[in-house]
């Protein structure tokens, strides 16, 4: 259990401003306005939180607050505060690792920590939404990988009495899309809840010949599966307008190499109580290939 520290001071109006100014200058208190959400994910107000001296009293050594949100995580009707914190190894780097969520109970100010499995990166962001339909908010944490592919790491975590990861590394790297090269300079993309499409990519003949993927007659020389990236930044969406949120993410489909972009696939995932199910899959062709065949 974390220790709570309370400082009570009685100041006359005339003496209030000078000590406060000195405190701000000495400790660099940063007042950050944050939105407050109810259990439906609706913004019901904002809060001004101190992101410096007060938080440092309980922050583990080497950690810093990355984001703060408020919402009812346990269903008691009282708004709780959720801190996203991360460990920064070097002051000169923007990379943080060993991320955690600190949940401060709004009723008694007790704090509990939730470790985020293998979570690190840049530009970390925290959002609170109800993904399970239990009338309490869950945490969606996203961080940028920092790589050239523009990938993100995403986790959805329940924050009740027994916190658990609903969406993690496995789900982030799993999708319903797959594909392969075919003879005749063609590509087959499968997915989209059973749908599929075959495309003509003969406009890339020279490149594929150079790579030895095809011969001059268009015969495939080696079997290569299409590359499907993990989900990018996931976005909470309420597609059914029932106050239960889904996850919308985009994956990139590439051919012979990462920059050989063929299409993007936008997937909306809903949580069923035990797994995430594709609610909709939308394939967006990047190029202008000849559509040879479409089937369901």
Could you please describe the fold and organization of this structure?
By secondary structure, the protein is mostly beta strands. The chain is 10% helix and 43% strand. It contains four helices and 19 strands. Strands 14, 15, 16, 17 and 18 form a five-stranded antiparallel beta sheet that branches. The protein has a four-stranded antiparallel beta sheet with strand order 3-4-5-6, with no helix packed on it. β17 and β18 form a beta hairpin. The longest helix is centred in the first third of the chain and has 15 residues. The N terminus is likely disordered.
Layout of SSEs?
Blueprint: H1 13-27, E1 31-37, E2 43-50, H2 53-56, E3 63-71, E4 80-87, E5 97-104, E6 111-115, E7 122-129, E8 138-144, E9 152-158, E10 164-167, H3 169-172, E11 178-182, E12 186-190, E13 196-200, H4 205-210, E14 227-228, E15 235-237, E16 246-254, E17 261-271, E18 276-285, E19 290-295
Antiparallel strand pairs: 1-2, 3-4, 4-5, 5-6, 7-8, 8-9, 9-10, 11-12, 12-13, 13-19, 14-16, 15-16, 16-17, 17-18
First-last Cα distance: 56 Å
CA-based shape: elongated
Output mean pLDDT.
79
Structure summary, number of beta strands: 19
Protein name: VCBS repeat-containing protein
Output the keywords:
296 residues, mainly beta, five-stranded antiparallel β-sheet, four-stranded antiparallel β-sheet, 4 helices, 10% helix, elongated, VCBS repeat-containing protein, Integrin_alpha_N
What's the quick description here?
InterPro entries: Integrin_alpha_N (IPR028994). This protein is mainly beta and 296 residues long.
